[in-house]
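Service request form, structural biology core

Requester: graduate student, group of Dr. S.
Request type: structure prediction, single chain
Budget code: on file
Notes: please return the result as structure tokens.

Sequence provided:
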Amino acid sequence: MVTSAGILLYRLAEPASPELLIAHMGGPFWARKDERAWSIPKGEHAEDETPEDAARREFTEELGCPPPTGDLVPLGVLKQPGKRITVFALEGDFDVNGAIFGEFEMEWPPRSGQVRSFPEVDRLSWVDCATARVKLTAAQAVLPDRLLAFLGLTDG
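Core staff response, request fulfilled:
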């Protein structure tokens, strides 16, 4: 099974209202999708890398800048078909205009023999918890509530 790790970056615009940094997935499959087409910055890691180290590395690789300094707070493991994602929360700010998105290659169009590069992420946004629940992938839609529980908040 593939193991991944990622960071749910949040900032407290108001004490009871966190904003979450979410990333729209890049590539042709996600280009015209919005709902359930967003994710936290995350990626795969090998068994010899800790989830914490992988989460910080993947944040940097996908967004071109390291995450803010601070302690990572475990939000648990999410299960997707064939994948387990260890998620951490981190309080901090990030300039969405300063990101330099990493790229991946794939054959496109399918069965064409042509390999093209696409950004791993094509845009970032700070959103409230209600918006994040709709935009994040189905497996990640629980993250706003896990964050609210950690913060001791009941409404977001």
